[in-house]
Write a structure and sequence with these properties.
Blueprint lengths: L1 H74 L13 H37 L3 E5 L5 E4 L1 H7 L10 H6 L3 H9 L3 E6 L4 E13 L2 E10 L1 H43 L5 H26 L7 E4 H9 L5 E5 L4 E4 L1 H17 L8 E6 L3 E7 L7 H6 L15 H11 L3 E6 L5 E8 L1
Parallel strand pairs: 7-9
Antiparallel strand pairs: 1-2, 1-5, 3-4, 4-5, 6-8, 9-10, 10-12, 11-12
Helix pairs in contact: 6-7, 9-11
EC number: 2.7.13.3
Subcellular location: Membrane
GO molecular function: ATP binding; phosphorelay response regulator activity; phosphorelay sensor kinase activity; protein kinase activator activity
Length: 433
C-alpha cells in the first residue's frame, strides 16, 4: 500500500510538472508571437519613415546632382548651364550664388572670345609679317603678310621655318643667319624695299618659342628722308641768306663809297664781307665733313700725349686713369669731336675751371666724359640734341653733336648726354678697347 501511494504521488507530481511545463510553453509562444508582431510593426514604421525621408530629400539630392553637373561643365569650359530652384532658405542662397557665378563666367568668357577675335583680326591684317615658331622650328602661327612674304600666299602652320627661308632671297637668309635684329633690302636699286627683322624668344606653355617680325620700312624711311632733305634745305637757305644778304649789301655800299671817294670806310666793309664769307665757308665745310665722314683709321694712341695736343687748342682740366693708357682710335676724328664738345662746355656758361675731360679705362673699353657746370639741358633738348640739324644756338648748324655721334658709332661705340647733379652737363662717349 505504501508503495502504491508513493507511486501515485510521484505520478501526480509528474503530471503537475507536465502541466506546468505546458503552461510555460504556451506563455513563451505567446510572448514570442507578441515580440515578433512588435518587431514587424517597428520595421514597417522604420520603412515608412525611410520612404518619407527619401521623398523629402529627393529634391535636395537632385539639386546636388545638378550642382555637380554644372561644376563639371564649368571645368570643361561650358558656362551655359543654370539651376532652377523654387524654395528659399540656405539651399536657395546656394543656388543663387551658383547661378551668379555661372553668369559671371559666361560674361568673362564672352569678353575673352571677343578680345581673341579682335586680336586675331589685328594680327592677321597687320602689314607686319608675324611668324611664331615652336622649339622644333615649325611654324605655329603665320599671319597674312607672312604668308605673302614667305609662303606665296599659302598657309605656313606646320611647315618648317628653315624650309621656308631656303626659298627666300639671299638678303633675307643672310639677315636671319646674322641672328638678332637687323635691317636688309630686297629688290633692285630702282625698286628697293627696306625691311627690319626683329626676333624675340619667350616661353609658351612651358616651351621656348620664337616670334619673328618682318616690317617694311621703305615708305616710312622715304617720308623721313624727304622731311630731312626739306629741313636741310631750310637750314642751308637760312644760313646762305644770313651770309649772302649782308655781303651783297656791303658790296653795294662799298661800290657807293668808291664812287663817292670815301675810301676810309672801305676797310670796315671789306672786313665784314670777309667775316661773313669765312663763316659761310666754315658752314659748308661742316656740312661736307658730316656728309663725307671717312671710315676711322684706327691706330694706337697715348692718351697723355693726345690730351696735351688738345690743351693747345682749348682750356680744360684733365683726369686720366691710368696715366699711361693707350687706346686704338682715329686721332684726327676724336680730336675734332672733343674740341667741339669742350667748346660747347665753355659756351654753356660754365666757369672755365669747371670744364673737365675725364678718361677712364673700363673692362671692355674706354669711357670719355666732357663735364661742365653750365645750365644743362631740358628734357626736350636732351631728346633731340644728337639729331642732325637740331640746334638751340642762334647761329648753330646742329651738326656738332650729330658729328660726335657719327664718329663714336663709326668706332663701334656710343654717346650719351645727361644732366649732372648740382647743375651742368655730362657728355659721355664709350669706345671699345
Amino acid at each position: 500500500m505504501r508503495r502504491l501511494s508513493l507511486t501515485l504521488r510521484m505520478i501526480g507530481l509528474a503530471a503537475a510538472a507536465v502541466a506546468v511545463a505546458l503552461a510555460g510553453s504556451l506563455l513563451l509562444q505567446r510572448w514570442l508571437l507578441a515580440w515578433q508582431a512588435a518587431l514587424v510593426a517597428w520595421l514597417v514604421v522604420a520603412l515608412l519613415l525611410a520612404l518619407a525621408v527619401r521623398r523629402l530629400l529627393a529634391p535636395a539630392r537632385a539639386l546636388f546632382r545638378a550642382l555637380a553637373g554644372t561644376v563639371a561643365s564649368y571645368r570643361d569650359g561650358d558656362f551655359s548651364f543654370g539651376i532652377a530652384w523654387q524654395s528659399g532658405g540656405e539651399l536657395g542662397e546656394l543656388v543663387a550664388a551658383h547661378n551668379a557665378l555661372g553668369h559671371a563666367l559666361r560674361e568673362q568668357r564672352l569678353a575673352l572670345v571677343q578680345r581673341e577675335l579682335l586680336l586675331d583680326t589685328m594680327v592677321q591684317n597687320t602689314p607686319v609679317a608675324m611668324v611664331l615658331v615652336d622649339p622644333a622650328r615649325r611654324v605655329v602661327l603665320g599671319n597674312l603678310a607672312a604668308r605673302r612674304m614667305l609662303g606665296e600666299g599659302r598657309r605656313l602652320e606646320g611647315r618648317g621655318i628653315d624650309d621656308l627661308l631656303a626659298a627666300t632671297p639671299a638678303a633675307l637668309q643672310e639677315a636671319f643667319a646674322r641672328g638678332g635684329d637687323g635691317m636688309f633690302s630686297l629688290g633692285s636699286d630702282d625698286d628697293e624695299d627696306i625691311y627690319h627683322l626683329s626676333r624675340r624668344s619667350f616661353r609658351l606653355n612651358g616651351r621656348v618659342h620664337e616670334l619673328i617680325l618682318l616690317r617694311q620700312l621703305t615708305a616710312e624711311l622715304r617720308r623721313q628722308e624727304v622731311q630731312t632733305w626739306k629741313k636741310v634745305i631750310r637750314v642751308i637757305s637760312h644760313e646762305l641768306n644770313n651770309s649772302l644778304a649782308p655781303i651783297a649789301s656791303l658790296a653795294h655800299s662799298g661800290a657807293e663809297l668808291l664812287r663817292r671817294g670815301q675810301h676810309e670806310r672801305l676797310p670796315a666793309a671789306l672786313t665784314t664781307i670777309e667775316e661773313r664769307a669765312r663763316h659761310l665757308e666754315g658752314f659748308i665745310r661742316d656740312y661736307a665733313r658730316f656728309a663725307k665722314l671717312p671710315a676711322p683709321r684706327l691706330a694706337p694712341v697715348e692718351w697723355s700725349r693726345f690730351i696735351e695736343q688738345l690743351r693747345a687748342q682749348v682750356v680744360f682740366t684733365a683726369d686720366l686713369s691710368p696715366a699711361d693708357g693707350i687706346a686704338r682710335f682715329d686721332a684726327a676724328q676724336l680730336e675734332q669731336t672733343l674740341i667741339n664738345l669742350l667748346k660747347n662746355a665753355h659756351e654753356s656758361g660754365s666757369p672755365a675751371d669747371e670744364v673737365r675731360l675725364s678718361v677712364r679705362r673700363l673692362a671692355d673699353g674706354w669711357r670719355i666724359e666732357v663735364l661742365d657746370r653750365g645750365s644743362g639741358m631740358n628734357e626736350a633738348v636732351l631728346a633731340n640734341a644728337l639729331l642732325p640739324f637740331y640746334s638751340t644756338k642762334r647761329n648753330g648748324t646742329g651738326l656738332g653733336l650729330a658729328l660726335a655721334r657719327e664718329i663714336a658709332e663709326a668706332h663701334g661705340g656710343r654717346i650719351a648726354l645727361l644732366n649732372r647733379e648740382g647743375g651742368g652737363l655730362c657728355v659721355s662717349l664709350l669706345l671699345p678697347a
